Amino acid sequence: MAVRRKTKAYSPETYKKIEAFRLFDDTFMSKVFDGRKEETALLLQIILDDPGIKVVSVHAQVEIKNLQGRSVRLDIKAKDSKGEIFAVEVQRQDAGAKPKRARYISSLIDGNILKTGKDFEKLPETFVIFITENDVLGGGKPIYNIDRTIQQTGKPFGDMAHIIYVNGENKSKTKLGKLMQDFHCTEAKDMNYKLLADRVRYFKETQKGRTTSSGRRYCADRRCA
Predict the structure, then answer these.
(1) Tens digit of pLDDT for each residue in 17-27?
(2) pTM of the full predicted structure?
(3) Residue 19 to residues 14, 30, 125, Cα–Cα distance (Å)
(4) Distance (Å, whole) CA 181 – CA 215
């Protein structure tokens, strides 16, 4: 006769913490998007204003190793049908979104893509995207697109490496503003995008999802009891 396992019970305090999570909490955001191609495609389509983006792979909490220096862990790493690479980081603290951190992430992505002997032209187009709760760059813009340019001519350098900062303070009626509204929400019913709301609802309002949200990996940053 098979032994039935007991479902692990979590304290009311733990569930209250889960209820308070928003997509601006990086581990919760990682749970929502991990392995979810449609949801990640929606996120990227809105940020890049490109409805044609089709995600073919997406993984959360991906560590990019540097054997000779500091490694980094990405909240989301995705690849689209054209081979373009997207690294998405959610940052509540301004210190976590410094320009040199964006530069370092971009360099590590490149350093882990190109194999020995391959031509540099084989490097794919890359996007390092910071979604920040505050207007880190301080320009009052909803989004900042950073690309290298040749100062003397004003023309693009053409290295196909992009850095993007999304301002979480933007809550306008635009698609991007509505997305940022969703990142601030603690309840699925208040969200604009159904695809994202359904995932948030799963982790917050179903027993299976709430149990998953309370797992060891999810609580590694001590946000859960």
Answers:
(1) 888 999 999 98
(2) 0.87
(3) 9, 16, 37
(4) 27
